[in-house]
């Protein structure tokens, strides 16, 4: 999740912007938005106060990461479009109302976070990739998420505030404008700020020592919000419910887990199965979408406090998967568990 910090900091690249001297506030706004849309670094440089940009140590430390993610930055802004609705201008201040449309980063980040968590847990278990290789993999995942969600757009209407400084228009890059030009990325970042901060601390701990505990079928495992137990494991080529059925792809099979889950918090929660199945070849698999068709699916089931719920989770794996575990970490700790299934 460290990558998210570098991603959000792309917004800082367009901080402290000033319009070209001698133009109207509306023209300055259009020039600014065009420069962002095309990611023309030379043109953006006409608007950016780089001295102010590098004043904070955190920003300076991240500049290399921003450069490395140039392709990602371009993909975010390439699809941006805008329309100026109206503007009002006084001697030293102005407001330009605009509709800004861009790729919906809520979808992008939702998909990325799910994939990143799955991959990170699998790599922690197998410890195959170096830090550099892991960073490269995360960047590839982010680009793939952008590509698969590029047609899902979000539009924000914003009042862009400008002030004249030394005869030139300066744009106030407030939270509302930042959020609009990044397709709600700032809203996503703010909503996950606390959890990512906690995870960053957990990553630091895990880099020093990740403690793995091995459990077996029938053992109860306590995680941060639930007690979890795998009661039985079965392999099959097809699954069915009252109204539907599904068959594993050619060369694949289903691994069906009967599980028991208990909410140990004091409020209702939704069960989000982040358990990754890892086979003897260190291939990792998420819970299959086919789990949804089953009457007793545990996927996203609402859990009331202290009430045991029983259901199933289904993984689709290659037929040559002869042994496997499921793995997950305990939130806010350096504890991780692998449950041996076969």
Automatic annotation (TrEMBL):
<feature type="domain" description="DUF4352">
    <location>
        <begin position="216"/>
        <end position="324"/>
    </location>
</feature>
<keyword id="KW-0732">Signal</keyword>
<dbReference type="Pfam" id="PF11611">
    <property type="entry name" value="DUF4352"/>
</dbReference>
<dbReference type="InterPro" id="IPR029050">
    <property type="entry name" value="Immunoprotect_excell_Ig-like"/>
</dbReference>
<dbReference type="InterPro" id="IPR029051">
    <property type="entry name" value="DUF4352"/>
</dbReference>
<protein>
    <recommendedName>
        <fullName>DUF4352 domain-containing protein</fullName>
    </recommendedName>
</protein>
């Amino acid at each position: 999740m460290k990558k998210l910090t570098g991603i959000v900091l792309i917004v800082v690249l367009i901080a402290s912007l000033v319009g070209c001297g001698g133009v109207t506030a509306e023209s300055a706004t259009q020039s600014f938005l065009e420069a962002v849309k095309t990611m023309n670094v030379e043109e953006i440089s006409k608007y950016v106060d780089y001295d102010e940009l590098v004043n904070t140590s955190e920003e300076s430390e991240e500049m290399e990461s921003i450069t490395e993610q140039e392709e990602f930055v371009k993909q975010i802004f390439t699809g941006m479009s805008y329309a100026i609705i109206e503007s009002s201008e006084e001697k030293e201040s102005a407001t330009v109302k605009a509709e800004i449309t861009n790729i919906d980063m809520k979808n992008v980040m939702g998909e990325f976070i799910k994939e990143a968590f799955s991959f990170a847990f699998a790599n922690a278990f197998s410890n195959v990739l170096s830090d550099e290789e892991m960073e490269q993999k995360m960047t590839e995942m982010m680009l793939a998420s952008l590509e698969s969600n590029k047609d899902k757009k979000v539009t924000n209407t914003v009042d862009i505030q400008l002030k004249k400084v030394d005869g030139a228009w300066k744009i106030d890059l407030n939270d509302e404008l930042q959020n609009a030009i990044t397709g709600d990325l700032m809203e996503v970042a703010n909503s996950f700020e606390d959890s990512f901060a906690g995870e960053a601390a957990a990553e630091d701990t895990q880099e020093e020592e990740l403690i793995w505990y091995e459990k077996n079928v029938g053992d109860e495992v306590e995680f941060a919000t639930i007690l979890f137990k795998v009661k039985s494991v079965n392999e099959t080529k097809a699954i069915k419910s009252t109204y539907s059925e599904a068959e594993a792809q050619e060369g694949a099979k289903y691994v069906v887990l009967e599980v028991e889950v208990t909410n140990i918090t004091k409020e209702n929660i939704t069960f989000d199965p982040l358990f990754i199945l890892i086979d003897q070849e260190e291939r990792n698999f998420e819970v299959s979408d086919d789990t949804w068709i089953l009457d007793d699916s545990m996927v996203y089931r609402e859990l009331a406090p202290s009430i045991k719920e029983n259901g199933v989770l289904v993984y689709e794996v290659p037929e040559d998967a002869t042994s496997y575990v499921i793995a997950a970490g305990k939130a806010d700790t350096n504890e991780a568990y692998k449950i041996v299934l076969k």
